[in-house]
Specification:
heterodimer, A: Amidase signature (AS) enzymes, 2 domains, 39% helix, globular, B: 65 residues, mainly alpha
């Protein structure tokens, strides 16, 4: 059930907020022991909140599309009185005194919080194979990863354990689980959703956004998470939208089924009236390299005070933190400078198009523990492959929406990434809804 | 051995890599950093004067205007 379907059912009295919440809690009870999407389940407070919202609706107080909608928060978003671990032993006993700004806004919009979803330790990785809180598993095939770092959020939405879950994205952490779990995820424009009360990772790269079952659900969720007045209006019809399809980089070293599905999505956009234009994209390797150097440096600086507790940090995250300490300051500064140059080049590209279509990830979800993957006869690092198409847009700050666009022959989901100009999320929603 | 590795970061920090990290992780650190910094340096050799440190959100505000 989507948020919009649930909203209609609530308002026509076919279901109550409490019944909707109980459905999700039942689903969590049934599936969480196997998939491990949640670290904390706030069953009792969720039911109380749902009852309050039922009373409000009965008295004519309707808070809007998220009224009575059961959601979950990634466990690095501060929630008042509810443990917020960031998937780390370092914060295992952290109980915030106040909600993060985004949690506050969603609460005010009428959402019912079901609990906190699991993540890659400190949101610093893409597998969600967490050494402290256990391995999160892909609902399509539990032997595969759900992607990360917002893996629990992707699984929760894909299985109906929650109708929406929050995520954060510093190098693809919303879009990768959306792609691997077959749900919708949007990394909005940098700065659109407040990071206040959210555990940082890369200060100049962190973004917050929703994971949902449909594009329309992502739209109404983002409306509640951020000040809508900053976003530009979408064109009134899809026919006005120019879709760029890259002729370089984005279809190199890509699994054949992914390549085919994304090209089919471009054909579908054309069928819906959009104008598809072949384009040459600027140097993605350069923006990805700059983005990675910035992330390594900022995360290492952030966690420097914790390195005397390194035995409490998992091996892969610890290696990344130490890797960041090896980046000279000159390289960090030049990465930031290069970022500005490349942003100008991408802005020039976006004067000729309104939206760029790429695969979200070059592959479908790999197996748990799979360190390398072979594409076109070349053996590649799974982590680097997974983040290849996502990472650059964190440095650029452009909004990027991921939605399902097919399945592999093995039944694993394939994700389409649509990138737009800053503050043009509505255009992505418009096109995404047309494709759905 | 770490000393034999070519890590293009600050040499005095190489010894800071914890010795209890598995060898494959150390090799990964070395390999990825080597690739990424080498590429970054090749690209940032001739940055134009306008390549300053303005923050991303400021850039987007400009776009928005």
């Amino acid at each position: 059930m989507t948020i919009l379907e649930a909203g209609r059912a609530l308002r026509s009295r076919q279901i109550s907020c409490l019944e909707l919440t109980n459905r999700c809690l039942d689903q969590i009870a049934k599936l969480n022991p196997r998939l491990n999407a949640f670290i904390t389940i706030t069953e009792q407070s969720a039911r109380q909140r749902a009852e309050e919202l039922d009373r409000e609706l009965a008295s004519g107080h309707d808070r809007g599309p998220l009224h009575g909608i059961p959601i979950a928060h990634k466990d690095l978003i501060a929630t008042k009185g509810v443990r917020t671990t960031s998937g780390s032993r370092l914060f295992a006993d952290n109980v915030p005194k106040a909600d993060a700004h985004v949690a506050e806004k969603l609460h005010a919009a009428g959402a019912v919080m079901l609990g906190k979803t699991g993540l890659h330790e400190l949101a610093y990785g893409i597998t969600s194979d967490n050494p402290h809180f256990g391995t999160i598993r892909n609902p399509r095939n539990p032997e595969h990863i759900p992607g990360g770092s917002s893996g629990g959020s992707g699984v929760a939405v894909a299985t109906g354990m929650a109708l929406m879950a929050t995520g954060t994205d510093t190098g693809g952490s919303i879009r990768i689980p959306a792609s691997y779990c077959g749900v919708v995820g949007i990394k909005p424009t940098y700065g659109l959703v407040s990071v206040a009360g959210v555990q940082p990772l890369g200060f100049s790269l962190d973004h917050i956004g929703p994971l949902t079952a449909s594009v329309a659900d992502a739209r109404v969720s983002l409306d509640a998470m951020a000040d809508g007045s900053k976003r530009k209006q979408a064109p009134s019809i899809v026919r006005d939208i120019r879709v760029g399809v890259p002729q370089n980089y984005y279809f190199d070293q890509v699994a054949p089924e992914v390549r085919e599905a994304v090209h089919n999505a471009a054909k579908a956009a054309e069928g819906a009236g959009a104008r598809v234009i072949p384009v040459h994209v600027p140097d993605i390797d350069a923006i990805s390299a700059a983005s990675l150097v910035i992330l390594l440096s900022e995360a290492a600086a952030l966690y420097e005070p914790y390195l005397d507790r390194q035995s409490e940090i998992g091996v892969d995250v610890r290696a990344l933190l130490y890797q960041g300490r090896l980046v000279p300051a000159t390289d960090y500064v030049n990465a930031q400078r290069l970022r500005k140059v490349l942003a100008n080049e991408f802005r020039a590209l976006f004067r000729t198009i309104d939206c760029l279509f790429t695969p979200a990830t070059p592959i479908t979800a790999p197996r748990i523990g799979q360190r390398e993957i072979v594409i076109d006869g070349e053996t590649l690092d799974t982590r680097l492959v997974t983040t290849r198409f996502a990472r650059g847009f964190n440095a650029l700050g452009f909004p990027a929406l991921v939605m399902p666009c097919g399945d592999s022959p093995e039944g694993m989901p394939i994700g389409l990434q649509m990138v737009g100009r800053p503050f043009e999320e509505n255009l992505l929603f418009k096109l995404g809804e047309a494709l759905e | 051995m770490l000393d034999a590795m070519h890590i293009p970061g600050s040499p005095h920090l190489r010894s800071d890599l914890p010795t209890d990290l598995p060898q494959d992780q150390i090799e990964r650190v070395q390999k990825i950093l080597d690739q990424v910094l080498t590429y970054l340096r090749s690209q940032s050799r001739n940055l134009p004067p306008e390549a300053d440190l303005a923050l991303t959100y400021e850039l987007h505000s400009e776009v928005d205007r």
